[in-house]
User: Fold these one by one.
Assistant:
Number 1:
Amino acid sequence: MAVTSPDQSAMRGTQPVATNRAWSWYRVSEGMTPYFLIAPLLVLIGVFIYWPLVYSTYLSFFDWNFVRPDKNYVGWDNFTRLPDDPRFMRALRGTLFYTVTLVPLQVFLPLGLALLLWPIRNSRAQTSYRIMLFSPTIIAYSVAAVMWLWIFNPLQGILNKLLVEFGVERIGWLSDRDTAIWAIIIVATWKTLGFHMLLYLAALEGVPKDYIEAASLDGANHWQIMRSIRFPLITPTFFFVLVTTVISVNDDVFGAINVLTDGGPFDSTTNIIYYLYQQGFQFFQIGAASAVAIIVFAATSVLTWVQFKFVERHVHYG
Amino acid sequence: MCIMASRTTMADSHDHRTRERWNTYGIHVVVIVICAFTIFPFLWMLSTSFKQADEVFTKDLRLIPNAPTLRNFPDAFDYFPVAHWFWNSFGIAVLTTLGKLVISVPAAFAFARLRFRGDKVLFAMVLATMIVPGIVTVVPNYILVSNLNWMNTWAGVVIPSLPGTAFFVFLLRQNVLQLPQDLIDAARIDGASTIKLLTQIVLPNIKPAIAVVVILSFLGAWNQYLWPLLILNDFESKTLATGMQFFTNNAESAQMWGPMMATAAIATLPPLIIYAFAQKQIIDTFVTSGIKG
Amino acid sequence: MSDMTRRRFVGQAAAVAGAAAVAGTAATSAGRVAAQEKTEITIYHIWGTPPGGTPAEQPAPMTQVIDAFNAQSETVTLNTNTPGNYQETLQKTQADIAAGNPPDLVSVPWANLHYAIDGLGVRDLASVAGDRYDEFVASMSETAWPLVTRDDVVHGFPWGLSTPIFYYNADIFEQAGVDPAEAFATWDSFAAACPALQEAVGGAPVFSLTYNKDWPAQTLIQSNGGRVLNDDGAFGFTSAEAKEAMQTIADLDTAGFYDRGTRDELRPNFIAGSTAVWQGSVASLGGLNNDAPFTLGTNTWPRFGDKPVVASTGGSFLGIFTEDESRFDAVLDFLAYCASEAGYSLWNQTGYVNISNIELERLPGQEPAYAQFEEGLILETNWPGARGLEAQAVWDVYCERMWANDISVEEGVSQALEGINAIIGA
């Protein structure tokens, strides 16, 4: 990954190209110091991220309820019974639905907003706008969910009260299987809008001024600059937002599901993360939960690899 | 002729400026609408937190209560150990932030400026953790925390959360890489040891990035949900985020919307205040270090 | 009391080598230098929230019992913890047992008796009570003990026994000109009364059934002569009687009388006067009396024609999970207090049926519960096998779906049977 930017080179004046120069002060042997510096991080990662992956794989072949001293070996059973479990299939469908709806909403919509905000980025109201737009992101998911729980209340909530004012029939937002999942999606979108928008704004601002100046001197207008210079140069940010959103979107809605619907009504808002939680901590089926965890990890890795392989080639690293 | 031409040009540019001004107004209007969508839940929450029970459960729509009350706030503290929850949230957030800094800054420095055997592989292993979704490690970590007897303790929540810092390591490393060469060279010539290099030269110069790590870590830990939900089972050891869920889950308290919204208000204040003060800082750091690759 | 303490002390000291007095052994937390050392025991229960009012004004009855016990005990301190609802309490118990740190007492739902025995290793009462066993058995009503007994072994202390009943808003009934006794007589008469009630609530749904649908479903099916789980272990919810019972609610939903709201919405809707009828546990009586701003009425379940109402149990028993023998006495002291007049009269404020042998005044509105209790209650369905909890969840969802007409009753019960069989591995 390239590290330098035009600004930096300008600062360094006539010094030679980055890569050669950079090595000039690397010492081949620093002794043990580097290892001490990275040790705490690596130890913690090993214990709390890599070891669990191994242990989860191990546990997925057993039947255990966390309390019994003995674990029963069941081979691949925890995996093979999943396709036959209608609750699991519903969780899969939910996962897909969330991914397909939330990724565009959380990746493209904020981009549109950032572009919208861009022309007025220097206005005085700008700071207030940013604070307001970012406010949903910084509060806890459960707090957000409680606020929306009250909004969605069928008899006392503001949404249904407004509907009744306009003569429309009340909607059972969280109790109707058709609307419940959209309720979760609304909350999730509301929550991440600001953060991603901020990232895009930062990326737009970070485009080096020289490029812009050079282009406008050449006679390019506002739109042409946007299209051929800014856009390509914010693709790294776009890619980053895309990859992280795909990984975390189902994880994120957990708080909302837990507070608003508990997976219901009739398992219509559940996803694979929630299924894992229920298996492990409501039904105490540690083996089954571990099997699902491994599947989630495998799926995430594959998805990430696919994005790197097929999408990254369009990213301009400048 | 010249005069006529210039008058036309002036008229043209006047039209152009008018159109631009309308465009700008238009954009402001749209942005304001979106802002309204973003903050109306907060407004509704605040409105309810100042209402008495009979106004909460009324048939009509009222944003400003007729008989506002401050009772919901002390009541919230009465019904549930909200003060404890606040303290737990705060303590966990602070410890998580400090912990992440302590492990991330030296590592970022080492990966950026030092060369040692396995540096590429180890850095890749750190970055790779970004694609592991939190849920995947939950069960084994839960078992581990239980075996270590860390249930219901801050340690049980904080320590397993510390490794979730790959992004910060990446960000900090970017910043260290972009420090001017001369600075480092000068220090080396002066015979500075590696540690001195880190503490006296590098650290002071990446303050903005550290500020961002502090803010984002704090917010992340303050708002953490699933992990504290599992580890903090005791009533009084919950955090604000998980305590709120308890409020709604419980049959008797599920209708106490006044105190519930008051608690929600209390829970949202610290993050909002922090962000209001620090938002420029956050953007600046993203701009300079960027996600450029 | 002190007489027995001395006798027990002598007996215990012989058995437990090196144990100091009954009071003040290793149970106290590290670093505590207490002037008077008491045995500390812990209880996890669910009754932490006060039924209306602030805790300062009126703490929850269980809190009152525990506080009163602590105040009068010279040898024991009972520490409490209210982790949340039943599921969260179970989860915490599970975690602590796994960590080697089990609580002493836990309120375990009747429905989880088998899981507590097989999965969590709850102690049987005889092993803890020793020679005080008979004294304990005599202290509680003999109708209660079979509920905690399996294979002739008693596994807990019966404590919170409830049964599902119907609550209604008497003011709305009056406004609608409906006579409650008539309305609740049979399901047919209930259906006939609904239109008038619906008008009185402005078109909103008329009634709702409590949060875990499988609980009222059991009473519903049983009252029509069916069973969810037969005594021989076979599933009975696919019988004609069961299906007919479930269809009754589904029909009321088609007519728009049934409230499909989420679990968090139902009780608040009732309190707010937005619905007229709420089926809940008699244990909520104390709380509702405090919260409801209207005249509260209670009634037994409507009957299916001539068939009697056969209700299920609700609530929980106190399970003992102590590993440390030196704490047995402390636990028994508390249980004895619970069964005593001082303790039980505090507990009686809740609405739970009085299963002690003490004559206590019944709460106004409790009559339907006693009527059902005297008819004979059937224990909550204990879903068999290690995956029983999951099976229960599956059945719960199907009940919800059938009642909301999300699936036909025919399809619902057969799919439920399939799903449950797959889980239990029949």
Number 2:
Amino acid sequence: MDSPSAASAGYGEAHVARGSISAGEVIASIGPLLALLVAGAFFASRSDRFLTGQNLSLVVQQSIVIGVMSIGQTLIILTAGIDLSCGAVMALSQIVMTRLAVVNGVHPVPAILLGMAAAVGFGLLNGVLSTRFGLPPFIVTLGTLNIAFAMTIIYSRQQTITNVPSSMTWLGNTFKVGTTAITYGSVLMFVLYVLMWFVMRETAFGRHVYAVGDNPEAARLSGISTNQLLIFVYSLAGLFYGIAALQSVGRTGVGDPNAGQTDNLASITAVVLGGTSLFGGRGKIMGTLLGVLIVGVFRNGLQLIGVESVYQVLVTGILVILAVVVDQYARRKQA
Amino acid sequence: MSETAADRTPVLEARGLVKRYGNVTALDGADFALYPDEILAVIGDNGAGKSTLIKALSGALTPDEGEILLDGKPVKFHGPLDARRAGIETVYQDLALSPALDIAENIFLGRELRRRGPLGSVVRMLDKRRMREDAAQYMRDLKIGIRSMRQPVETLSGGQRQGVAVARSAAFARHVVIMDEPTAALGVRESGMVLDLIRQVRDRGLPVILISHNMPQVFSVADRVHIQRLGRRIAVVEPRSVAMADAVAIMTGAMEGVRVPLAH
Amino acid sequence: MSRGRPTGRRRAFGLAWRWSAVLLAVAMLAPALVGLAQPAAAQDEIIVGLITKTETNPFFVKMKEGAQKAADAAGVKLLTGAGAFDADNAGQTTALENMVTAGAKGILITPGDTKAIVPAIQKARAAGVLVIALDTPTEPMDATDALFATDNFKAGRLIGEYAKVAMGDKAPVIATIDGSTGVSVSVLRHNGFLAGFGPAEAGGATPVATDSQFVPDSRVVCSQDADGDQAKSQTAMENCLQKNGDINLVYTINEPAARGAYTALKAAGKEKDVLIVSIDGGCTGVQAVKDGEIAATAQQYPLKMAELGVDAVVKYAKTGEKPSGYTDTGVNLITDKPMQGIESKDTTFGLANCWG
């Protein structure tokens, strides 16, 4: 009956306590950071303007819209879903905000809230369609992408909205740290990343997001209401798209009907570069931040050293493929 | 064991369960009884209603007729979570583990522990240290020798994963542990380890319902064997009194109406 | 089963680690090798920036070539950038900021979103950078230091005047295949064409350059926005023909649109009965005039815009003198079928001066 040696002998010998935190996770977290540092070092060596405070602040500023949007995309991809509508929803949200304020004279605060509500509404729609009706998120968000895009064009009458009240563009205002100007929007982006990093690591909700993406049946049998969780995740992502919309207004100072058209692919790129797996269940929020910054550093750095911008697109493509290959390789070596 | 059987209340009992799917009758007045301190194996050919019976007992479906009693009191399950809340834990055939999460997270999946005080109630922060310590204790209780609870489950072998799933059920079950084909995907050696685990669970006071196709394993570990056929329980035998071949014959209907010593 | 795995697995982890680090370093080096082909800017080298709407439109490709040639001749460094699609304001804003950081003394830009780019331009000018709009004015026009562009209204007027004489006594049934909705170039060319063609009745009003929308005209039976894209223009022309089979005069915003319209007309067997006029003067467009597909086109000179732009920045860098206002970079009517009283040049001239 009691055979401790037989039982533990089979179980215990295979693993050492600490060292076998999966090295796949190590690669996933070190890889993007390494890439960012190497890229930064390279550009710093080729141009003395790269490593200045002003330029680095600029790199961040150029990344804040995609940056905030990609938080939502990361959550969705962690559940093994995808959101192609993020850019279009963001565009609609900022048009709603600015048009209400400028053309209809609505006070900025409710205008902003209504714009965010529009974004959350689309997130909710995405969530409900992909759970209750069992439609694949790729198809659902492809549909809502087109709907949001059309609504943006119709509602804005294809006109850029200018003379936006300064309280709406507040996120674009700067404060000085030494001689460097930093925008409030940049700070907000970092704050949001840290907040979500905490939520994903330290709350049950965060762990459930991973579980649902990893093995939805197991999650369900463990008592997690997967449909509810997914609807919440998509809606929360919508909220982030609304915040990204406000970031966009802060950065450009206008309501731009043509905003965000390529942002869906850009956010997916950032998520993949950051080491998150498109199959769900694996990845880190902070990885996405690194992915966003990598793309921003490349764009800025290549411009500074005078390389044609089309090479930036080429390099991004190479990096994405590498990121996926490494992810697959690491996974195969684990199971 | 058998001499006092008639006086003991079954931990989990079912009487006259009926379940129909259109024209097909999966359960045709099935009975069931599980007593404390035993491993009860449930065997039956395909179509005997074995899995339907287990689903009714674990709350995955509701029978059309009949009643289920837990500790002598009638219960009605509207879903697997109801059964879980009543203290019946199930180890599913595919384990229902999340490979990317670590052992402690899997054990507490859906039942996570929060930190004490406002950090737990307001911020809803998890108490990871306590979960890891408790998980390690559950594994030690079953003498499973994996040392780090921070390992992702995907780095474990099949038998080790089975160990985690069993430890989870044993940790949270208050009345019954149901195991559905626990050794189906395992080799000989790891199967042996899992059978040892099952004995550990019983020895710690939780009766186990074991569903299995593997007769030698059933006969090596079970205290009693419930034989299901054509939607009903047609026999319950003790492995030490009945030959494996005879049990198989009863299961397939080759041996019909033969008086075998019934243990209950 | 468990015994052999730890060392094997740990070795594999190490391999994957090292392998991926190497690959990432290689990917990093790829742009480095590209960048190495270009020497780092000397300390007091003058830097000129050029930002176009897209990388791919041959109009902008020619503009870039012209700018590069002028930059090489003047011994200055040229930085280039573009949006990802035609109205990509975010992309152009980012390029603008980065060029200012890189130390550009002046930046030439063909703005995609003429209103939204203004704040970014103002920031650049506030930093002492000269900003000149090429080809398309910003809204308002004085948001940039200067504008070097074709007079788009005049370009439309030239082909309108030509079409009037070419049509003779025939009652015109006109279709217009225009550019992107609301874009100023589209409006100016369209209205210019109508102004040049003349009013419906004698003494009637004609459009002027300050009109901000298409001026309605009873002779125009079909008007479609097709983004200046060949495929979309073909569809637009097909739809127009469905609407009114008697169309005998087609105005197109540019030559790809004209090509699309011609394809649709040919498929309907009407290419001999319909007069097509266009604007741009790209080499393939002038060839189409020579081949008889397009009757006349108004040629513009992106190369000249780029050259003038680079020269203006160099002058500013050396003397501090800024250009101002609008400089007309010229437009010529190109046709092989000249009309009485209408000044034009033939396709030989056109092909010698074309772009693309």
